[in-house]
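Q: Two folds, back to back.
A: First:
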Amino acid sequence: MAALSDTPGATSTARRLEGEFDYVIVGAGTAGCVLANRLSQDADVSVLLIEAGGKDDYHWIHIPVGYLHCIGNPRTDWLYKTVEEKGLNGRALSYPRGRVLGGSSSINGMIYMRGQREDYDGWARETGDSGWSWDAVLPVFKRSEDYHGGANAFHGAGGEWRVEKQRLKWKILETFAQAAQEQGIPATSDFNRGNNEGVGYFDVNQKRGVRWNASKAFLRAAMKRPNLTVVTGALTERVIFEGKRCVGVEYRGDVPYRARARCEVILCSGAVNSPQLLERSGIGQAARLAQLGVDVVQDLRGVGENLQDHLQLRMAYRVNGVRTLNTASAHWWGKLMIGVEYALMQSGPMSMAPSQLGVFAKSDIDDPGITRPDLQYHVQPLSLDRFGEPLHRFNAFTASVCNLRPTSRGSIHAASADPTVAPVIAPNYLSTEHDLRVAANALRLTRRIAASPALAHYQPHEILPGLAFQSESELREAAGNIGTTIFHPVGTCRMGRADDDDAVVDARLRVRGVEGLRVADASVMPFITSGNTNSPTLMIAERAAEMVREDRRAGARSSVRTEVHAPVAAA
């Protein structure tokens, strides 16, 4: 285990591995980095941030194309897998989650995406708190943003979270964009104004062609403060309670440690790890806790339930007469030129996010019930049989399409009280009629785009899933064959109203039925956002920091009032 105590400003007394702190944050992913930064801005507050993974000093984290070396690598990935899924025709999937400073922002696709206005207005209705509405969260997004186009009505400048244009162009992607427009999908230069309908290149969290993760953005500067202690290589085993009051955590590196929290413990472990940590600590369905051999602190049936994820359907097309990454990188001299371009200019294929071109569209324009885009495309100038395998030796592109608002619900639960045992992840993909219908329509729309006049010159030929799948039932089967996660799990500790028995946290992210414990990560989303989920998680952490600081100030004022009005003891 490594305490990051060699940073400027650190002192041996301020950076103990155990002891008492005002706030203990579990998980140094996107949310944890933000909270550690914001809470430690108050010099009179002490903060401990605990991370199971290591430092983000692996070079492949920072080179954008290096996600290929980070996903599936135990140095940076938890290496989770799902159960065998009926909706995927019996297949189990790898389920990458970041296990390193910066969390999944260190291994993800770097796409800057907020979602749609209606997503957040739906959160506000679900929680009864207007602070989660689009109009309320837009200023929160803007506050931390450093947008390449400068500040305007929808974007901020000067914040920590750098947003840039991509440093590449591909003819096949620009032609796909033209084809999408021929199908009635408008061009757009910005997916982040509340209505993301359209086709265009994604904006990315990069700085001059280098990944900009949450650790760089929020943690590195904060680590110079003497009131912030960051511990890596430390697996949190459980949260400690005295009665119904959360008082700290137990975590393990080379030896066990215990850290007490004078004010709060805040879980930022993500949609996979936060619910299983709650269960190991006695918060969850009583019957499930009994099976784990864990004493019940609070019976909350919603813990680990409500899992939502975006299932992408990967369609691949062979093309002629246009270059793609398949052939550009097929030989050593091609790889050499790609490396030289990145070394000299930080541009080209090595600066590529996993997906470059985005499309947001409606799965059925004739359905009056679909009032906003319910599909998202991630389009790439490459193809391969499955993630981690070599690119095909012929020119091709991939158009992955996902249902933005699935109605299928899954679960994530602790498999054991032992924190080293992986959880049971059951996404339950394609388990509703709605999701099956949207999947079939998504495949049809992709075929219409591929058959558009703009692409005709390149003679696209579908190689995945293949033209043998035509009828409704065949397309549904094809979706099960080619569907895979796009790494957006949310909702397993969802927030809700006080009278919502399935909610795990309230609108202020406090775990129901106990004191001194919050959850602030993607797990609290009641509904998945209509797009990539990393920046919405950052926004949640920003709001959580506001709430924590507000509650601390309110508590201080209450304490002062009590002292002022206390009766004077008789002499």
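A: Second:
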Amino acid sequence: MAKPENRVATHGVRCFSKIKMFLFSLTMAYVAKSLSGTYMNSMLTQIERQFDISTSVVGLINGSFEIGNLLLIIFMSYFGTKRHRPLMIGVGCVVMGLGCFLMSLPHFLMGRTASPKFRMLIWKLEDIFSILLCIKEIKSSMWVYVMVGNVIRGTGETPIMPLGISYIEDFAKSENSPLYIGILKIGVVIGPLIGLMLATFCANIYVDSWSVNTDDLTITPTDTRWVGAWWVGFLICAGVNVLTSIPFFFFPKTLPKEGQEDNVDVTKSDKEVKHRGKAKEEKHGITKDFLPFMKSLFCNSIYMLFILLSVLHLNAIVIIVTFMPKYLEQQYGKSTAEIVFLIGLYTLPPIFVGYVIGGLIMKKFKTSMKKAAYIAFCLSLTEFLLSFFYFLMTCDNFPVAGLTTSYDGYVQPLYVENIVLDDCNTRCNCLTKTWDPVCGDNGLAYMSACLAGCEKSVGTGINMVFQNCSCIGSSGNSSAVLGLCKKGPDCTIKLQYFFILVLITSLIYSLAVIPGYMVLLRCVKSEEKSLGIGLHAFCTRVFGMNNFLTHQTNTILIVFNRNIYIGVPAALRGLSYLPAFFILKLMRKRQLPGETDSSETELAETKLTEKKTECVDVHRSPEVENDRELKTKL
């Protein structure tokens, strides 16, 4: 009676251990990690205000995630495959949760009594960073918690992508793998969307709402002195990351190949013997393969060309994504909130559809890697050529004093440093790299109310009006309102065409992503796959342009010069097709390590089984003949 119960229990565990359950859990982990990253980036302004720190310290806090991530990702990608991959992913999610919790901790410690030894440690760290960054004074040392928490968060994220994708590649059907990777990519898109919504919600709540009477506040979220409840989102991110870690602790180290789950009991004993032997070999050679694997990857011309392609392409995408809201706001005269909404509306749905369709096509037609490479190349090139139509969908630049025109209204070359200030605003001690535009009643825009020479303001929020502006010479009352000056209806029509083109190009681009990424996964050997994914991520992050592009001067140049905003990404993407061409050329002559189809593998295994059966029959045939002779004699 005990046997049926055991079978039921085993069946339940087996159902939980299937690759689709792992895919769902990994997708949730992708959502959680991208949610945390987007929320962190969105809260940098609130953190800067909370701790009254300089821009250089904010940059250090923001880059600390990459420090924790890049230090471990290559080694984690290699050593992780030798261990229990789901378990390590689960631990990584917990570590990310711990990092997020640590980032929220200053809110609970500020103003509280801490141990003298602990405060001495914080002050010493503060002195070290002050020396390194040439900072004369930091009013609050609690920012160190946020930085250390971000480092820990980056450390925890390292096993998720390389170990998760390699686990799927090892145990999923070859034709199903592209669809599964596409689903993971959707998780990367959903996370930032939720992160932005969470950041907007928390930024509109006062930081000390639970300890002060908000009715007595004299400032609003639009005030530069406002500090949002940045710590609330980090607590939510910590909880989400810990919750997503739970399923990974129940997955086994290995799974039966997808589609072969019903044969587990039959081949269990044979697999256990093989697994023990393999475990001994891995334990014996856990480090000796690292350098050979690295050498193999660096000698893999297709893989290295793919890394070069990815670096060039990523840098182009960084420019487009980073500056699109500000560029469209300046070009078409719309508010930031409206532009962000339109970007999400016209990009996210086609990206979702493209990822799924791309994976389904590869699954349905069992596309070979050579065909996948050609599909990705043709789709990407089509989208690249269509992107040149963006040059036709632009409006004239706003006349902005100190940038595109002089303070007297004369047109001039874009952004000449020595004319940002004028006699009318030199006494105001204005920041020359701040972009908080206002529109004067003379029809001329200014980089900020300070640079317009405004002395006072009336009203709050979007209804705020600046008065007594010395730089605005007009017959009116020399006033200005927030935002750039309005544009004509022609710009609204061009904006509609712009987003229609965005929708089309986003769909084509996302259709090319999955076939292209599968070429990366299949151009390396199975045992090198996790390390290859980690090295690829390392190179694309190290050689990215994120730090260079955060400078506000470059922001102003790129936003106001459409030739720079559209032309620089086009040039980088154009260069990326050179390594892509050589990849196609090399793939004609080579058989990729991961290109063998699963059906071919099963056919080979069937033939091998038949040969073994024949050998057994041949080996036993003399005994059969002797039995026949004995029966005949009797």
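Q: And?
A: Strands lie at 400-401, 438-440, 445-446, 456-458, 465-467, 480-482.
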